[in-house]
Write a structure and sequence with these properties.
The chain is built from 3 helices and 2 strands, in the order αβαβα. By secondary structure, the chain is α+β, with helices and mostly antiparallel strands. It has a two-stranded parallel sheet with strand order 1-2. Helix 2 links the parallel strand 1 and strand 2. Helix 1 packs parallel to helix 2. The protein starts with 8 loop residues before the first helix and ends with a helix.
């Protein structure tokens, strides 16, 4: 799934994290979207995204806290 350049990236992360229909998602591209530690917290805690194997998040606003959560 490619969502690069999303204007409300953290909100999008929360929507993705709460979507059971994405349980089989294996790859997520969300580059240059302004993702922060807040969005990553939702992604890391999601029970629906356990199959995710590739996560592309370059050029975002991710700090040490967000990286630790992953």
């Amino acid at each position: 799934l490619e969502l690069t350049g999303q204007p409300d990236a953290d909100e999008a992360m929360h929507l993705l994290a709460n979507c059971p229909a994405l349980a089989g998602l294996r790859t997520l591209w969300m580059c240059s979207s302004g993702v922060t530690d807040f969005g990553l917290a939702a992604l890391a805690a999601s029970p629906h995204l356990r199959s995710l194997r590739r996560l592309h998040l370059y050029n975002n606003r991710i700090g040490e806290e967000g990286a630790r959560r992953l």
